[in-house]
Specification:
Blueprint (H helix, E strand, L loop, with lengths): L1 H8 L4 E6 L14 E7 L3 H13 L4 E5 L12 E7 L8 H11 E12 L5 H17 L9 H7 L3 E9 L11 E8 L4
Parallel strand pairs: 1-2, 1-4, 2-3, 4-5
Antiparallel strand pairs: 5-7, 6-7
Bound molecules: S-adenosylmethionine (SAM).
C-alpha cells in the first residue's frame, strides 16, 4: 500500500484536514511541507490504534471531529485535504466532498487515494452485485462508487487522476480498482 500512498501524500502542504484518519497509516508519510493535521475519525478504535503514530509524528495532529459529512472547520480555513480509502465508507460521500470543498481555501488541493467502480463492465457488474454484501461485512464499505465523478460533482477541478488495480495474490479486481489524484478548488 505504501507505494500507492506515498505519491499521493507527496503533494500535501500547510494546514491539512484528513477525513477518515483511521489508525493513522498516513502519518509517517506526511512530507515536511505539512504544518498541522486536523484529523476527522468517528471510530474510537481507530483513534486508539493511531495514538502511537500520532505521538511519534513530527507534524502536530489534532482530532477535530467525528464526521467528514459535517466538518467542524471554518470556510476556506485549510490549505489541503486528504482522503485515503474513506470515500467508500462515508454514508453520504457527496456531502463529505462538499464539506471538504467548503473548508479548503481557493487554490487548495484535495489529495485522494480511493477504490471504486471499475470501467470494465464485467468487473463493475460484480461490484454492483456484491455491494450490499460488502457493506454488511465491511463496515459500510461500497465497491461501486464513481470516485472521479463524485469529486467533480462537489465542484472540484480534477488536476491529476490515475487508475490502477491493486496488485496482490489475494486482491480480486472488484475490490481493487483505484482512483488516485489531486483535485483543486479553483478560485472565483
Ligand atoms: C477503510 S478505513 C481507511 C482508514 C485510513 N484512511 C487508511 O487509509 O488506512 C475507512 C475509514 O473511514 C472512517 N469513516 C467512516 N465513516 C466516516 C465518516 N462519516 N466521516 C469520516 N470518516 C469516516 C472509518 O472509521 C475508517 O477509519
Amino acid at each position: 500500500m505504501r507505494r500507492h500512498r506515498e505519491p499521493v501524500l507527496a503533494g500535501a502542504t500547510g494546514d491539512l484536514v484528513e477525513i477518515g484518519f483511521g489508525s493513522g497509516l498516513n502519518v509517517p508519510l506526511y512530507p515536511p511541507s505539512v504544518r498541522r493535521v486536523h484529523a476527522v475519525e468517528p471510530s474510537s478504535v481507530g483513534r486508539r490504534l493511531a495514538a502511537k503514530r500520532v505521538a511519534r509524528s513530527p507534524v502536530p495532529v489534532e482530532f477535530v471531529g467525528l464526521d467528514g459529512q459535517d466538518l467542524p472547520l471554518g470556510d476556506e480555513s485549510v490549505d489541503a485535504a486528504l482522503s485515503t480509502f474513506t470515500l467508500c465508507t462515508i454514508p453520504d460521500a457527496g456531502r463529505a466532498l462538499r464539506e471538504v470543498y467548503r473548508v479548503l481555501r481557493p487554490g487548495g488541493r484535495f489529495l485522494f487515494l480511493e477504490h471504486g467502480v471499475s470501467p470494465e463492465p464485467d468487473v463493475a457488474r460484480w461490484q454492483h452485485r456484491m455491494n450490499g454484501f460488502q457493506q454488511r461485512i465491511a463496515a459500510g464499505c461500497n465497491l461501486d462508487r464513481p470516485i472521479d465523478r463524485m469529486v467533480r460533482d462537489a465542484g472540484f477541478d480534477v488536476e491529476q487522476l490515475g487508475n490502477d488495480y491493486l496488485k496482490g495474490p489475494r486482491i480480486a479486481k472488484p475490490w481493487g480498482y483505484l482512483y488516485h489524484g489531486v483535485a483543486v478548488k479553483l478560485s472565483g
